Amino acid sequence: MLLLLLGIIVLHVTVLVLLFVSTIVSQWLVNGGHTADLWQNCTSGTIFHCLTSSTNEWLQSVQAMMILSIIFSVLSLFLFFCQLFTLTKGGRFYITGIFQILAGLCVMSGAAIFTVRHTDWHQASENTSYGFAYILAWLAFPLALASGIVYVILRKRE
What we know:
30% of the residues are buried. A five-stranded antiparallel beta sheet has the order 4-3-2-1-5. By secondary structure, the protein is of the alpha+beta class. The mean pLDDT is 86. Helices cover 65% and strands 10% of the residues. Helix 1 (2-24) packs antiparallel against helix 2 (57-86), helix 1 runs antiparallel to helix 4 (132-153) and helix 2 (57-86) runs antiparallel to helix 3 (94-121). The chain is elongated and about 60 Å long.
């Protein structure tokens, strides 16, 4: 049982790290010396220069979804530890699982909106590709959902 709990905690912390990195790092779109993310557009070359990102409504919704996913995941981890000590024997971690599933759905919504609408913001070219932070956001989605489902299925034992 201890190894199972340790594995669940490691999975949850992994999801949290992926969410934090994908939200903070400036690598959602990469085009040679130009990178863009949810918060700023940076150009590297002789001078490294960053400008604030656009104020498009869709970009603000992506920002909100990513922040909500982090909040739900942190809240889910906190609730897991609370329920671990207060839940009766045989009880299930429903609240923890629901918040973790919500975190997964929020990151999926944010990444999907970005996928569909990023061409409104930056014109697509042959050199433009998705950066590693964008890929980490998509990787966090199934891991968060799996973690949430495990929490819902998991029963507390002595």
